[in-house]
Amino acid sequence: MKNRKVVFHFLTFMLLSLLLSTAYLSYSFLFSSFEKRIDDTYFKIRGKKPGDKNIIIVDIDEKSLKELGQWPWSRDKVAQIIKNLTDYGAGIIGLDIVFAEKDNSSPKLVLKKLGLKYKNAPDYDAILADTISKSPTIAGYVFVLGDDGIKPGASPKNNMIVIEKNKGKSSYLIKAYRAILNIPILQQAAYSNGYFNTVPDSDGVVRSIPLFISYNDMPYPALTLEMFRIAMGVNKVFINYGKNGIESIKIGDEIIPTDRYGRMLINYKGPQKSYRYISAVDIYNKRVKKSDIEGKVVLIGTSAAGLLDLRSTPFDSAYPGVEAHANAIDNMLHQDFISRPSWAVGADIISIVLALFILFLVLLVPNAIFGFIALVVMDALVLVSHCYLMIHKGIMLNTIFPFLAINIFFLIGEIVNYFLESKQKEIIKKKFAAKVSPAVMNELIKNQDNNILEAKEEMITIFFSDIRGFTTISEKIGDAKSLIEVLNDYMTPMVDIITSHKGTVDKFIGDAIMAYWNAPMPVKNHADEALKASIEQIKKLREINNKTKTKRGVYIDIGIGLNSGLSVVGEMGSIGRSDYTCIGDAVNLASRSEGLCKPYGAKIVLTQFTKELLKEDNYKIRELDVVRVKGKSEPVTVYECFGDDEGIWIEYDKISEKNYLIGLDYYRSGDVKKAKGIFEKLYSISPQKIYHIYIERCIYYIENPSESFEKIFTFKTK
Q: Which of 29, 141, 228, 643 is the right S-S partner for 332, CB 3.0 to 4.6 Å?
């Protein structure tokens, strides 16, 4: 049964390894939403980290809208904000805003529309363009990724030299349909520009930012990447391709890991306001210190809900888009990335297979509590280790597939174990229900996976009992039904006594009972338990005979033989028909020992091998003889047990015991005349069969002095 369990669990391990690895490689997108939610949870477990104090956000907030009017503001106001930032000494300014149309509030445009003189009137767009040209401003624009029915126009300005290294036939970059650019005067005025698209995942959460987008087969950089490049003072940027797409972006000596589509996962510092926000109106009115701005990276954007630049992130459902860009720049400046490296696929496959293999070993342990604890520990280990790797090492591994592998295999394995164990329990119950005590039965079921039924060599004590003169009893009773009732009256208490002493009933052979101790479960002091059961059976006969004499007019007498030794114990028989039993030389000797009860007139005969194993000393035992039983060449000393300290069933006292041993010594030494005298004296006091046997042997050697004396008696029959 254990082998079947091992084979089944191993096949399940192999099948699940194949199926889950295939699903991971080909169908992981089906589980991506769950995986992303787990990653979001890791962010929340990590908690908030301080953002770079050198990155600030100039916020077009509700306060600014209240003081400066509704958006869009006239371009002269925007120009004033940029000018003030430049005057404060801003290191670089990024615009998370696109000015796609002319400023209709510009006096020059208004006068022109009215047909009035406009030549010297202020042109707000020109003012903003002039301000931008004199500032470290990187303009922003937006790509439209899908066909919106509007014909594509001009391409963005691109000052970056992009080298796509090891690029194959496909670029893997996200492709844009058209660009929504700043009006030409502003686009030309800016030192450079970059798009500020954030592409949310399928669940609407922004977890990454595309560092390049392809438009007209040319790669264009994100606003954040362009700001980082300029800050680094580098012109060339490398897009590094691998076998499965883009692997990283290289700027100077810095490497930015990406996914195959060139997207950088944003390592968010926390919920919104992880960076310093300064209200745009405070910059406009110069209500801040120069030290708040000088040398800093500035992003101009909005947190006002009405301006619709709020995004969902792992920390917040309404998060200003401009702060997502702040996080991205922070990640680049400090090389603080989270990514799925190219080797992550291999690591994920290994973790799936390894988790399944460990659980395979766990399921072989026959302990449901251990299995459940192992399940909890393994689940926790996967979650904690992956959380640790993401938080502290910036490495993202797949969590859902190892987690599914563990729990699916555990569920299947425990169901299989339940049915196999149920079947094993039924087999054990069927094999041992009538053989052992309920306590032993429970122990067998508890330890059913320890090869209980497997044949093996054990040191056991074997018991045989037989009813004397059963043929005469059968004839006297007459009918079969009454005979069976008498046998049941006898067998039932005998079996109860055996099982109460932790013995195993092997079989019934007509009127005979065969049993053994120390199998299938270990029994401490098994020889003592077997002898105690034998003594109790002889005493129980008095009660049984009182019933059978009264009811059927018959008297039952039995003989019991005990022997201990190594025997093969286990499931034996033919295919489809077998039983749990024992075989071996020790079993045969036990049977012969029972056969010696009749010639020696004993009720219990035990061999020297059983006597040597006895631990207790409250038994009444005497040596009978040294014999060779039929079928064995080696002599064995046999003993008779005739009771214990609580009572004996023959006349025997200390004096008789002493004289008996003296008589044996004379006999063994060949002084048969002295031996005969002692045995005759003992027989006159208590006419026991053993005394008569030795008297006859002594007479034989006295009458046949020429015969070679044999102190070992050989039995020719069973």
A: 228
- The region that residue 678 occupies, defined by phi over 0 for left and psi between -120 and 50 for alpha, beta otherwise, is alpha
Domain that holds residue 264: 47-334
User: Residues 61, 9: one domain?
Assistant: no
Q: Look up residue 511 and give its two tokens.
A: 């009127």
Res 625 pLDDT > 90: yes
Both 211 and 302 in one domain: the answer is: yes
Contacts 24+ apart (CB under 8 A), 66-74: 67/281, 68/280, 68/281, 68/284, 71/302, 71/304, 71/306, 71/307, 72/103, 74/103, 74/105, 74/106, 74/124
Question: What would the pLDDT profile of 194-249 be if each residue is shown by its tens digit?
Answer: 999 999 988 899 999 999 999 999 999 999 999 999 999 999 999 999 888 899 99
Task: Check pLDDT > 70 for residue 445.
Answer: no
In a domain, 625, yes or no: yes
Pairing of strands 178-180, 137-144: antiparallel
Q: Which residues contact 403 (CB under 8 A, 6 or more apart)?
A: 379, 382, 383
Q: Which value, in Å, is the radius of gyration of the alpha carbons in the chain?
A: 49
pLDDT tens digit sequence for 136-189? 999 999 999 999 899 998 999 888 999 999 998 888 999 999 999 999 999 999
Looking up tokens 């002898």 gives 531
- Looking at the domain assignment, is residue 36 inside a domain? no
Judge whether 247 and 342 are in contact, CB under 8 Å: yes
Last residue of a domain, one of 307, 334, 361: 334
**Run of H or E including 11:** helix 2-27
Strand 236-242 to strand 245-251: parallel, antiparallel, or no bridges (unpaired)?
antiparallel
Last residue of a domain, one of 613, 629, 644: 644
CB-CB contact of 331 with 222 (8 Å): no
For residues 249 and 394, state if they share a domain. Answer: no
- Residues linked to residue 319 through DSSP beta bridges, in sequence order: 311
Q: Give how far Cα 210 sits from Cα of 139, 190, 358, Å.
A: 17, 22, 39
Same domain, 421 and 440: no
My answer on whether 592 and 525 are in the same domain is yes
CA 641, CA 604: separation in Å to the nearest integer?
Answer: 5
How far is the CA of 439 from the CAs of 30, 231, 436, 448, 654, in angstroms? 53, 81, 8, 14, 40
> What is the CATH number for 536?
3.30.70.1230
Number of independent structural domains in the chain: 4
